């Protein structure tokens, strides 16, 4: 039976919540390896204009990018729709010297005051919001004029991929069920190429839109291996500026 958009979103939230601990365990094991923290810190920090302070991390998951950027001195807010992911993120707040704030909110329509953010960042989020093509229009509001939008992502679905039918583990089976073919067909960016993402950002009114290959994390993925069911994917850093 075909799910409604709301049912799709609930299925995805349940997926991320159920596997949040496993996801975070893998993330943390990677971050403990030499070069990892620095690579991710650079991937986002290099694009931050001088004076950047308030940063919004969309689809923060278990919060590791938000925590990294907060450790670099930014005031970070991370949002996600998965309660389980947010629980993992919040569990790390107490031991952090300058912790982010983690909130339950939709990355496709972030509920923040006009112009309060100097930067909006995301990692591995672009492919997943239902409203991917319209979401960038809603990112103008919280971003101050001149503020930057930075997203790191890869191509996770092959053109005719149904979300992972040849699954082995319980997590992979759950992924294939949550992100079945009908659901992935609703995700405009799941199979979108680099050019399409840049075009959508330009159409949303962002300026200086560019996509740069990000070889450093790919090299680390090749060296250290990725989570089961994945293979190292070329990553791009998409960046743009709100005119101002
Ligand atoms: C692949 S994980 C990435 C997590 C984190 N950014 C990282 O790099 O580890 C994708 C995350 O996006 C979240 N997500 C997906 N759609 C979302 C939406 N519309 N609003 C907020 N979070 C969303 C999921 O709940 C999940 O935590």
Précis, in short:
The chain is α/β, with parallel strands linked by helices. It has helices at residues 5-18, 20-31, 36-45, 64-71, 83-90, 135-139, 170-178, 181-185, 194-203, 215-224; strands spanning 54-58, 75-80, 101-104, 117-123, 143-154, 206-213, 235-242.
Q: Can you walk through the features of this model?
A:
This protein has a single domain (5-242), classed as Rossmann fold (3-Layer(aba) Sandwich), CATH 3.40.50.150. Helices cover 37% and strands 20% of the residues. The chain has a 7-stranded mixed β-sheet, sandwiched between helices. The chain has 244 residues and is of the alpha/beta class. It has helices at 5-18, 20-31, 36-45, 64-71, 83-90, 135-139, 170-178, 181-185, 194-203, 215-224, and strands at residues 54-58, 75-80, 101-104, 117-123, 143-154, 206-213, 235-242. The mean pLDDT is 91. It binds S-adenosylmethionine (SAM). S-adenosylmethionine is lined by residues 16, 27, 59-61, 64-65, 79-82, 85, 106-108, 123-125, 128-129. The site of S-adenosylmethionine has 20 residues, from helix 4 and strand 2.
